[in-house]
Specification:
It comes from Botrimarina hoheduenensis. The chain is α/β, with parallel strands linked by helices. The protein is built from 22 helices and 11 strands.
Length: 442
């Protein structure tokens, strides 16, 4: 019990007092395949670092609302949005591609500061040093609590494991076979020492990455070897099974910067131009469709008078399922009340078996229902995409279509259209995500 209280205190300290995520750690290439966003769609997504909201905007939905209880996360996305409006591509890439600039004062004070909301302006007035490229953490991507952890890992690589040259060779590898040879013979034996395994079992260290004790417990429960083995297996998959040439997640984590060839989509020149638009020609950029909100998902949904066709919930339900089950049920009720019919919902979890969603009770048209009765899971696509995840740090990935009539109603509709569909009945909680979702990691 004491360990749990201490863990919560550390996690709250990390999340309540500073920027946590300086980049998103969910692969939007997978999300966009699942979401199939287009004109008329409205999406609600947790802000995180805002990278993925900008990525989704490239599919031109009608509106994207980003919601986060941490105002610093919204301050980061607000800075990106203001920079898209006010900067040219080269200076934008200095900030968010290289993670540092010699022109911060000119960029900030002369161009973007007046375009920021007041709360975000106050944050960047104080924390512009993040982009100066100075000190022991000379990149924005080594700032914030997740950046602090990344900086520590790079210190370990440089000073303890002494494999910086091997890491650079790994990132430059042209084939998966070349990667695998380097990783298995030169990188992994040096990297996986007692210090790393000890760190990965500490709640305090994991809190820097935004991983609460509840997520670690889920992995300890279902994954043989616990979180340390899970991370080891995940890294094995990233560096020896999946191409690294376009894996910008691990590049920025290991180097503190992106390259023009290996970066998020919003940092590519053509996409930047689409996000920016052409003010002189009266053409609005796609970034204008992105709106930040500092609040909870529940309170935000209750505050709007329009519906959403898509939701991206990241992994926040892991923590809520452990500590706020009543609020989680209220949140799902609010989602149902403000969702189109049908609506597409994505989430991730540390749990290999995501068993806490389907049993939640909600009311639909005056009738009490289990979520598992009205969520139609696309497990085949979820497993296929999960295997290709460039981040590879989640236990499971869920794609579900919310249908108020339930899956039986879907089957009737399909049968009326001449399709032969077997009604499998209510999906069990244990089957909501395939139990072998991590088998793809090899």
């Amino acid at each position: 019990m004491l360990a749990t209280h201490l863990s919560r205190a550390v996690f709250k300290l990390c999340h309540g007092n500073q920027l946590v995520y300086n980049t998103c750690w969910e692969d939007p290439r997978l999300d966009r395949v699942a979401l199939k966003l287009g004109p008329g769609d409205r999406l609600l997504v947790i802000t995180s670092a805002g990278c993925n909201a900008l990525d989704y905007a490239l599919d031109a939905p009608e509106r994207i609302d980003t919601v986060d209880v941490n105002p610093r996360q919204n301050a980061l996305l607000d800075l990106k949005l203001a920079a898209i409006r006010r900067l040219d591509y080269d200076r934008f890439f200095q900030l968010f591609g290289r993670g540092k600039t010699d022109e911060w004062d000119a960029i900030y004070n002369d161009a973007v500061r007046d375009d920021l909301p007041e709360a975000s302006r106050k944050f960047w007035d104080k924390n512009g040093k993040f982009f100066l490229g100075e000190g022991r953490r000379p990149s924005f991507y080594f700032r914030g609590s997740a950046g602090m952890f990344a900086s520590g890992i790079n210190w370990y690589i440089n000073r303890k494991a002494k494999i910086r040259e091997e890491i650079e060779m790994l990132l430059a590898a042209q084939t998966v076979e070349e990667q695998r040879e380097l990783y298995e013979t030169r990188v992994k034996p040096a990297f996986w020492g007692p210090m790393i395994r000890w760190v990965l079992r500490r709640d305090a260290a994991l809190s820097l990455l935004g991983v609460p004790r509840a997520q670690r417990k889920q992995l300890e429960r279902y994954y043989p070897g616990g979180i340390a083995k899970f991370v080891e297996d995940s890294l094995d998959a990233v560096f020896s099974e999946l191409p690294l040439k376009d894996n910008y997640f691990w590049r920025v984590y290991l180097t503190g910067e992106y390259t023009p060839e290996c970066c998020p989509e919003y940092l590519r020149p053509d996409n930047f131009a689409r996000l920016k638009g052409d003010q002189a020609a009266g053409v609005s950029g796609l970034a204008e469709r992105v709106h930040t909100h500092t609040t909870t998902i529940l309170d935000h949904i209750k505050s709007v008078d329009y519906q959403y066709s898509h939701f991206v919930l990241l992994d926040h339900m892991d923590w809520m399922a452990e500590h706020m089950r009543d609020i989680l049920a209220e949140q799902w009720q609010a989602i149902i009340d403000r969702a189109t019919d049908p609506a597409l919902i994505l989430w991730r979890s540390a749990a290999v078996i995501c068993e806490f969603v389907d049993p939640i009770q909600v009311r639909i048209d005056g009738t009490q229902r289990r979520l598992g009765e009205v969520l139609d899971y696309n497990r085949e696509l979820a497993d296929e995409l999960h295997a290709r995840d460039r981040v590879h740090t989640y236990g499971s990935f869920s794609i579900a279509t919310l249908r108020r009539g339930g899956r039986a109603g879907l089957a009737s509709l399909q049968q009326s259209n001449g399709e032969n569909v077997a009604d499998a009945g209510a999906q069990s909680a244990k089957d909501s995500v395939s139990p072998d979702a991590l088998a793809h990691s090899g």
